[in-house]
């Protein structure tokens, strides 16, 4: 056999080896993450639910999904083990990194200070004409064009 005919098979086997190797690494990493779980740890399930670990057994985990509400999950259903600060930030809204806004900050109630406009009151501002214009002139002009108006026999 020629080496050129064997080359595609060698490349295919090499690609399969690399794909299975990366999948095996991901599985090992997920198993290590699940082994790090301890009672009191915050977790996220693969369904996106956040809960606190209460008990751990060989294949299952007892999670407290709400105060006083417990559910049994398979260990494989745990998508991520979260750090305490991240869990508290997501579930309870605690965020220590955000600084409190200064009390000296003034927020305007209108946009006049942003546009640089001088003090113009509502009475001084030009008023827009919001009345509906009569379309009678357009209808009459259209009727004159072909001699027929809407509603007549043979009208377009």
UniProtKB/TrEMBL annotation:
Question: Example GO biological process term?
Answer: protein transport
Q: Is RNA-binding given among the entry's keywords?
A: no
Question: A single GO CC term, please?
Answer: plasma membrane
Q: Note down the stretches annotated as region Disordered.
A: 92-156
Task: Please provide the record's keywords in A-Z order.
Answer: Cell membrane, Membrane, Protein transport, Translocation, Transmembrane, Transmembrane helix, Transport
SMART domains membership: YajC
Record membrane topology: Single-pass membrane protein
State its location(s): Cell membrane
- InterPro entries the record matches: Preprotein_translocase_YajC (IPR003849)
- TM region positions: 6-23
Q: Where is the composition biased (Basic and acidic residues)?
A: 124-156
The cross-references to PANTHER family, in alphabetical order and at most eight, read: SEC TRANSLOCON ACCESSORY COMPLEX SUBUNIT YAJC
NCBIfam families to which the protein is assigned, alphabetical: yajC
The family annotation for this protein states: Belongs to the YajC family.
The protein in question is named Preprotein translocase subunit YajC
Encoding gene, per UniProt annotation: yajC
């Amino acid at each position: 056999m020629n080496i050129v005919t064997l080359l595609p098979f060698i490349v295919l086997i090499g690609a399969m080896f690399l794909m299975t190797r990366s999948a095996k690494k991901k599985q090992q990493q997920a198993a290590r993450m699940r082994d790090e779980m301890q009672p009191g740890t915050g977790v996220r399930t693969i369904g996106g639910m956040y809960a606190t670990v209460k008990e751990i057994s060989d294949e299952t985990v007892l999670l407290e999904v709400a105060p006083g509400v417990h559910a049994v999950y398979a260990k494989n259903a745990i998508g991520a083990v979260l750090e305490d600060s991240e869990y508290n930030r997501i579930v309870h809204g605690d965020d220590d990194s955000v600084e409190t806004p200064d009390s000296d900050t003034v927020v305007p109630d209108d946009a006049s200070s942003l546009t640089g406009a001088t003090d113009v009151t509502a009475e001084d501002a030009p008023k827009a004409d919001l009345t509906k214009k009569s379309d009678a002139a357009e209808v009459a002009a259209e009727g004159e064009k072909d001699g027929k108006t809407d509603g007549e026999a043979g009208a377009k």
